[in-house]
Amino acid sequence: MRPHDSLGVLFLGDVVGRVGRVALAKTLPILKDRYQADLVIVNCENATHGRGCSHEHYEELLAAGADLLTSGNHFYDIKAVFNENLDWSRLVRPINLGPKAPLEGVRTIRVRGRTVRVINALGAVEMGGFYERPIPAIERALAAGSADYTILDLHAEATGEKICTARYLDGRITLQVGTHTHIQTNDERILPKGTGYITDLGFCGLDEGCLGAEAESAIMRTAFQLPVAFNYVEHGAGVVEGIFAVLGLDNRCLSIEKVRARAVA
Fold it and tell me: Quick one: which of 27, 128, 161, 220 could link to 228 by a disulfide (CB 3.0–4.6 Å)?
């Protein structure tokens, strides 16, 4: 039984296409009840045909039960993020995109009377694009104000960059999760100074494909270097992956465990 003054956080990996969205909608109420989650965060990076998250799908994920959404390297693929007439107030975009990027790279919300600061950042290794390295941007966010808990979604390719960032920030943030690779790792742990960590949450999407896409298209592209677009199917067996973490007082993570569920879309 977890302490009564703790905070339960369910954080789910990259939602990929319709299968991921439907699987999430079917399983999230069950997962929230099972873990008694106080806060649900979902990475929506691939929710719209694998490339970003449209405003329609943003609202769909919130309606499914997410409290906040994080993003990644496909943030700019959806041009509606520049539309100031749309409410994107529960989307956290990568903080290191640059000073003129729309929306916010850090958001602070109140949960059960406590402040939770959520930061999204892009890794620098093998990610492409023109991004500031994540640590200076994260440092500025930490220096800008305090919060009871700080959660970081590091959307990055390189496993080494993820663990090095977590070791550097250990004790200064409460929880760091990795996203982007769509492969759930088996290294969830609490670091020596109290920060909860996992290299990658995994994803929410087609279970019998490749990274959420239909397998054949992904194989043609990756194994044979053919200019084939990933095919994101509309129906199939879906998987939902992530972690559940219990956050205690003094900005420390008390426990962290992997989450994995299935649903047919």
Answer: 220
Active site residues: 74
- What is the tens place of the pLDDT at every residue in 3-20? 889 999 999 999 999 999
* Cα–Cα distance list, 82 to 55, 86, 122, 129, 175 (Å): 11, 9, 19, 19, 30
pLDDT in tens, 160-208: 999 999 999 999 999 999 999 999 999 999 999 999 999 999 999 999 9
Go through the domains of the chain in sequence order and give each one's CATH number.
7-264 (3.60.21.10)
SS (H, E, C) the chain: CCCCCCEEEEEECEEEHHHHHHHHHHHHHHHHHHHCCCEEEEECCECCCCCCCCHHHHHHHHHHCCCEEECCCCHHHCHHHHCCCCCCCCEECCCCCCCCCCCECEEEEEECCEEEEEEEEECCCCCCCCCCCHHHHHHHHHHCCCCCEEEEEEECCCHHHHHHHHHHHECCECEEEEECCCCCCCCCEECCCCCEEECCCCEEEECCCECCECHHHHHHHHCCCCCCCCCCCCCCEEEEEEEEEEECCCCCEEEEEEEEEEEEC
